[in-house]
Design goal:
This protein has 510 residues and is of the alpha/beta class. Helix content is 62%, strand content 7%. It has 15 helices and eight strands. It is found in: Membrane.
Length: 510
């Protein structure tokens, strides 16, 4: 690249010298000719010419320097830390949310984005870790929460679905006071805390139980750390949930509860089997055993005693994770929730744009029908169809955030019209619709309506094809425009649709 610059400079210098020598010779001749009449006038003319040449040379030199100078590489600063990546993702999601026209949906998503923004902007001094206890009903989730809290906070029973709604408890954890998150700072050790949420059980029978189960899954996806509680071998539904949560990037511990029911040798076998089954989803140390609410024991003297919970292995593992992975846990969770928010916003936007686009197509199909119904030609004029399609393309582009010029829209419309002609869609449409019209209205009326109805039908196929094009980011796909048009034709020639379309056409055009 540098050699090219030097070569250009050398060529420009030689050309400049040649022009300069020619100019000097020409100026000398001009001066001599004028000086014969008036030396003073000759000097003034030469001075003006020299000044003009100097100015032109300066302008050429400036723009030459701009052209020849090495281009500065644009430095794009990419987010480095997890919390910066989460912030960028959240900002993109918020932009998408702002485009949603449905006020209720927009407000709901905006409220979620505000919660994420608030949590992302918190200093770690006020930051909390969100831990969710998750699993089947009666697996011992509430008992485990009670044990972690150090006191009974909810009723413990063996009935399925004891916890009817989620309950959140706050635990101060002084041993986390030295934790530091990237880009955030700890203000005071007293503020480090953990929020533990007890959720309703999965697979509760009844519609209400299903709603609670869905709420539990939503809470699980929002957790920084998830405690997945079981009290037996993993059921199929539990394993599927485990796979789904790990697959979306959730950090979790598999907690086998009620270990007090087994002998020491049996515990080791159970633990080994669980670790083998969950490999490679989980690290072996992330599978632990507890006895959150041990069974009452009888002393030799006949007295009954309630043993203390056996949760030390779990607590030790939890604290180890929070100390070593606290930064990534929170940032990764915020990133995941931001991405989910963006996906929901994109889904709503896609539905919104689809509805707007279909409204435009329906409007233009009847415009096309009106234009061509007035044309005395016996067949559909594809050029007029392309003219109608041109404006339709412009409006569809705006719906999908693309500014399409009239020239570009015209080129797209003509290209699609040629494709439809190559596929003989006009003849096929007229044949298909004429049969339907004759079965619906009198023959004389049917023949008068046929051209307009065919125009509307072909405009609809064109519009549907353009929607596919814009949804794919202005791409006709691997098989090109012909495959898209042919697919839309097949979708819109089904009997049920044709009957409904003809019914609407008769109402519009008669």
């Amino acid at each position: 690249m540098r050699r090219s610059y030097l070569l250009l400079v050398a060529v420009a210098t030689l050309i400049g010298l040649g022009v300069l020598l020619t100019a000097v010779s020409s100026l000398g001749q001009l001066y001599g000719a004028i000086a014969l009449a008036s030396p003073l006038l000759a000097q003034a003319v030469i001075a003006l010419i020299v000044l003009a040449l100097a100015g032109a040379t300066g302008v050429l030199a400036y723009y030459g320097w701009l052209f020849l100078r090495p281009k500065r590489k644009r430095v794009v600063t990419l987010p480095q830390s997890p919390d910066q990546v989460a912030a960028v993702s959240l900002q993109a999601a918020q932009q998408q949310v702002s485009q949603i026209e449905d006020e209720i949906a927009r407000q709901a998503l905006a409220a979620r984005s505000e919660v994420l923004t608030a949590r992302l902007s918190q200093e770690v001094g006020g930051q909390t870790f969100q831990i969710v206890v998750f699993g089947l009903g009666s697996a011992g989730k509430t008992a485990l929460v009670n044990a972690l809290l150090g006191e009974m906070a909810a009723p413990v029973a063996a009935t399925l679905g004891t916890t009817q709604s989620s309950q959140t408890y706050r635990i101060e954890v002084p041993s986390l006071s030295g934790l530091r998150l990237s880009g955030l700072r700890v203000r005071s050790p007293e503020n480090a805390a953990v929020l533990i949420t007890d959720t309703p059980g999965l697979l509760e029978a009844s519609a209400l139980g299903e709603a609670r189960s869905q709420a539990s899954k939503a809470l699980a996806t929002a957790a920084d750390l998830l405690l997945f509680v079981i009290d037996n071998d993993l059921h199929r539904v539990e394993y599927e949930q485990l796979q789904a949560l790990v697959g979306m990037g959730k950090r979790l511990l598999l907690v086998f509860n009620k270990r007090d029911r087994y002998l020491s040798a049996e515990r080791e076998q159970i633990l080994q089997r669980l670790r083998e089954r969950t490999n490679p989803l989980l690290n072996s140390e992330d599978v632990v055993m507890v006895a959150a609410h041990p069974s009452v024991a009888q002393l030799p003297d006949g007295n009954l005693v309630q043993p203390d919970p056996e949760i030390s292995d779990l607590v030790e593992r939890m604290l180890s994770i929070l100390r070593r992975e606290g930064t990534d846990l929170i940032a990764s969770n915020l990133l995941l929730q931001s991405q989910q928010l963006g996906e929901e916003a994109r889904s709503l936007l896609s539905i919104q744009r689809q509805q707007q686009a279909e409204t435009i197509v329906e409007r233009y199909q009847w415009i096309g029908a009106g234009v061509l119904a007035a044309t005395p030609l016996p067949v559909v004029d594809m050029l007029l169809t392309a003219a109608v399609n041109t404006q339709m393309v412009v409006e569809l582009g705006r719906v999908y955030g693309v500014e399409v010029s009239i020239e570009e829209a015209k080129a797209l419309a003509v290209s699609l019209a040629k494709t439809m002609a190559a596929l003989s869609l006009a003849k096929g449409a007229m044949k298909l619709l004429s049969v339907g019209l004759q079965a619906t209205v009198a023959t004389a009326i049917a023949s008068k309506l046929l051209q307009g109805v065919s125009a509307a039908y072909l405009t609809r196929i064109a519009g549907k094809s353009f929607i596919v094009y814009f949804q794919a980011n202005q791409d006709w796909g691997d098989h090109g425009i012909q495959a898209v048009v042919e697919q839309q034709y097949q979708l819109n020639r089904r009997d049920a649709f044709v009957k409904q379309f003809l019914h609407s056409a008769i109402e519009k055009l008669t």
